[in-house]
Amino acid sequence: MLKTYIEEWFSNPGKNLLAGIVVALALMPEAIAFSIIAGVDPMVGLYAAFIIATITSIVGGRPAMISGAAGAVALIVTPLVKEYGVDYLFAATILMGIIQLILGILKIGRLMKFIPRSVMIGFVNALAIMIFMSQLEHIFGISISTYIYIGITLLIVYIVPRYFKAIPAPLIAIVLLTTLYMITGSDVRTVGDLGTITRAFPNFLIPQVPFNLETLTIILPYSLSMAIVGLVESLLTAKIVDEATDSHSNKNKESRGQGIANIITGLFGGMGGCAMIGQSVINVKSGATSRLSTFTAGVFLIILILLLGDVVVQVPMPILAGIMVMVSISTFDWKSFKYVKQAPRTDAVVMILTVMIVLFTHNLAIGVIVGVIFSSLFFATKISNVHVHQTIENNLYKYAFTGQIFFVSIDSMVKKFEDKNNTVYVKQLNTDSRKIISELSQLNERHLT
Fold first, then answer.
1. Residue 296 has pLDDT above 90, yes or no
2. Angstrom distance (rounded) from CA 183 to CA 437
3. Reduced to 3 states, what is the DSSP secondary structure of residue 390?
4. Can you give the residue ranges of every domain in the chain?
C-alpha cells in the first residue's frame, strides 16, 4: 500500500512538476472559453478547473489524468443558466456530483469493458477533430503575426523533443514566445481577450435557490445529463491514458472521485466538469506519470490567478492554439484508416458512425452511446444465425441445431424446422415446444449442438 502511494505521487517528481505547469497554462484559456459557452463569469470555469484538478488528483482513480471544466458539460447547462441563473448551475453541479458518487459506489466503471474497440477508436478520432476545429478561430483571419506565432510554436513542439527532453517543449514555447510578445507587442490575441481574471480565491457558498421539489425538478434533468456525460468522458479518457502509459486505473474509484470533485466545485462557485483528454494528452506527452502532475496543474493554476494574473493574460493565444493542434495530431489514431479496410464491415461502420454523431452533436457521450447501441445490434444479428440440420431415422425426423439460442434467434430457428423439399412442416410447434426452446435460451447462451 505504501509502495503504491509513493509510486503514484513521487515517481519522477521533476518531470511531473514541469508537466503540471504546462497543463495549468493550457487549462486557463479552455476554462475561460467554456465559461463563456455556459454563459457565466470566466472565474466560474477557472475555479472549477482548479478545484476539480486538485481534488481528483487526491481521490481519483487515474494518476496523471487531468480533469477540469469541460465543454460538453458547459453545452448542457447553457439553457439552465440562461433561464434560471448561475445559482441553479451551482445546485445542479452539486447534484451532478452526488449522482456520480452513487454511480461510483454501484461500480459503474465495470461497464467500460462493454465498450468495443471500434467505438473507442471513433471516440478518440472525433475528439482529435473537435480539438483541432476548436482552435481554428484562434488561428485564421486575425493577423500575419498570428500565423508566425503558430508556425514557431509548431516547430518548437515538434523539433525540440527530438534533441532536448529535460523541459517540456510546450513550456519552452510558452515562455519564449510570451516574452517575445511582451517585448515586441505583436498583433495577436491573448488570454486576456477571452475574459477578465479576478485575482481572488474561491469562497464557500450555499446556492441561493429554494430547497424544494420544484427546484429538484428543474435541476435534475440537467444534473443527470451532466453526470452521465461527465462519467462517459472521464472513464473513456482514463482508458486512453491507461493505454498510453501501459498502466491500469480504478474506474470505479475515478467515478467516485469525479463525484466528490463536482460536489466541492458546486459549493465553491464552480461549474461541473470531467476528465479532459486534450490536457491529459499534453500531460502524458510532457512526461507525467503520477498524481503530482495533476495536483501541480490545479495548484499552479490558482497561483497563476492570484499572483501572476497580470502576466497570464498576456500569453498569446496562437501559442496555446499551436500546442492544442499538435495535441490533436498526436491524439488522432492514424492507423484507423488501415483499420477501416481490414476490420469487419460492421466494426468500420460503428467507428465512422461514432465519429459522425460526435461531430454532429458536439457531444462525445451521445456518440459513444449510439456507437455501443449499434455495435450491440450488429453483434446480436451476427450471432442470431442458427443452423438446423435435419435427418430421418426409422421414419422419424430428427433435428440438430448449432448456434446461440436466445430471444433474437428463436424465431429464425423455428422457421428452419422444415425439410429441404418443403414436404414436411413441423406444424405442431406448440406452446410446450416453444417453452422448451425458451428454457434452452436461458442456459447462459451456450452453443448447443
1. yes
2. 81
3. strand
4. 2-331, 387-448
- Of the candidates 243, 297, 236, 370, the one whose C-alpha atom is nearest the C-alpha of residue 69 is 297
Amino acid at 49: A
% of the chain exceeding 70 in pLDDT: 86
Counted residue by residue, the chain has a size of 449
Compute the distance between CA of residue 107 and CA of residue 216 in angstroms, rounded to an integer: 25
In which residue are the cell numbers 456525460 written? 229
At 312-369, the pLDDT tens digits run 788 888 988 888 788 788 778 888 888 888 888 888 888 888 889 888 877 777 787 8
Which cell numbers in the block locate residue 223? 444534473
Instruction: Cell numbers for 293, please give them.
Output: 502532475
Q: Which amino acid is at 99?
A: I
Nearest to residue 297, comparing CAs of 127, 87, 51, 128? 51
* Model confidence band, residue 134 (pLDDT cutoffs 50, 70, 90): confident
Residue 167 region by backbone torsions, left for phi larger than 0, else alpha for psi between -120 and 50, else beta: beta
Cα distance between residue 359 and residue 3, in whole Å: 43
Amino acid at 289: T
In the numeric block, the cell 509513493 is attached to: 6
User: If you search the block for the grid coordinates 478547473, which residue do you land on?
Assistant: 49
Stated pTM of the model: 0.73
Q: Which residues 6+ apart lie within 8 Å of 246 measured at CB?
A: none
CA–CA dist 34, 224 (Å, integer): 19
Most confident of 14-28, 41-55, 73-87: 41-55
- Backbone phi, then psi, for 154, in 5-degree steps? -60, -40
Name the one residue in this structure whose C-alpha cell is 493577423. 143
Nearest 5°: phi and psi at 388? -110, 125
CB 361 within 8 A of CB 232: no
Q: Which residues pair with 403 in a beta bridge?
A: 448
Q: What is the pLDDT of residues 250-281, one digit of tens each?
A: 889 999 999 999 999 999 999 999 998 878 88
| Amino acid code (one letter) for 442 | Q
C-alpha to C-alpha distance for 138 and 146, rounded to whole angstroms: 8
Q: Measure the CA–CA gap between 47 and 41, rounded to whole angstroms.
A: 10
CB 54 within 8 A of CB 292: no
